[in-house]
Design goal:
The chain is 0% helix and 38% strand. The protein is mainly beta.
């Protein structure tokens, strides 16, 4: 599988599409309007979801791996907290799922 964008919200009149973004030089993950930058370009690499910023999706090490643990972007080290498969992120606070769709680059 090649590179792709992870879209949370589709674009519609008066509402921009939102994409998973790892702002440059940051461990943050945010939803932002598409800008086609490396910060929004993702790929699968050894069961890790890697951003073109060089960081990977990472479950915060201060929390137990599992549903409800916070996610951030981190330097790849291949530990269990960085291993994922195609997923549906569930938000415990809102009791709603965050299904991220990918669009091929």
């Amino acid at each position: 599988m090649g590179r792709f964008y992870l879209q949370k919200q589709e674009e519609s009149p008066g509402r921009p599409g939102l994409y998973l973004t790892n702002p440059k030089n940051s461990s943050k993950l945010v939803l932002a309007e598409q800008d086609y930058s490396a910060s929004q370009t993702w790929r699968w690499d050894n069961d890790m979801l890697m951003c073109d910023t060089g960081k990977v999706l990472n479950i915060d090490g201060n929390f137990k791996v599992g549903q409800g643990a916070p996610l951030l972007a981190w330097e790849p080290h291949g530990a269990e907290n960085q291993k994922f498969c195609p997923f549906n992120i569930f938000c415990k606070k809102t009791e709603k799922g965050l299904l991220l769709h990918w669009k091929t680059v």
